[in-house]
Amino acid sequence: MPATIGIAALVPTIVGFIWYHPKVFGTAWMASAGLTKETAMQGFNMPLVMGLSLFFSAMLSFSLTSVVIHQYGFFSMMFDADSQRQLADHSSSLYTHAKAFYDIEGTNFRTFKHGALHGGILAVFTILPIIATSAMFERKGFKYIAINAGYWFVSLILMGAIICHFMPAKQF
Questions:
Q1: What is the C-alpha to C-alpha distance for residues 97 and 106, in angstroms, rounded to an integer?
Q2: Residues 61 and 79 in one domain
């Protein structure tokens, strides 16, 4: 796993420590979730939860690369064995075509701001509907939805920005 993916995977944990701190949104979140300090920690296995949380954040970081780095879409069309063999052969027409494309488009839209934009779009159009739908069936209110969706909005903006700006570009 590239270091950039690992660094981006740490973002939800860092943002979570701040976001869910009692002096920020932690107290409001606990109230909207129907939790108290006592009930929140009952049966809570902190090492397991933090470990799984980091694992899921790494999965999210990995999948986020295809959302924030547009060039991955071009190369995703060439995942079959024949295309990979042609890309390895510097005399093939596919290699020549891919290299020409990458020479022109290789680092376009590879900025912190562009990654943040796509992270935010993903949060609003994918994460928000998932959280809101689940919360409505769980009978949670608007505050609960806003706090959790806001957390993911900030986290995905930062993750997308880090991945888009710092992920090394493919070299030919």
A1: 13
A2: no
The string of DSSP letters for 111-122 reads SHHHHHHHHHHH
Residue at 171 is within a domain: no
Lowest model confidence (mean pLDDT) among 67-71, 73-77, 116-120: 73-77
Query: Based on the number of CB atoms within 10 Å of its own CB, is 151 exposed (0-12), middle (13-18) or buried (19 or more)?
Result: buried
Residue 171: predicted pLDDT: 64
Whole-number average pLDDT of the chain: 92
Using DSSP, state whether 156 is helix, strand or coil: helix
Torsion of CA 142, 28, 122, 139, to 10 degrees: -40
Provide the domain limits for residue 11: 3-67+111-166
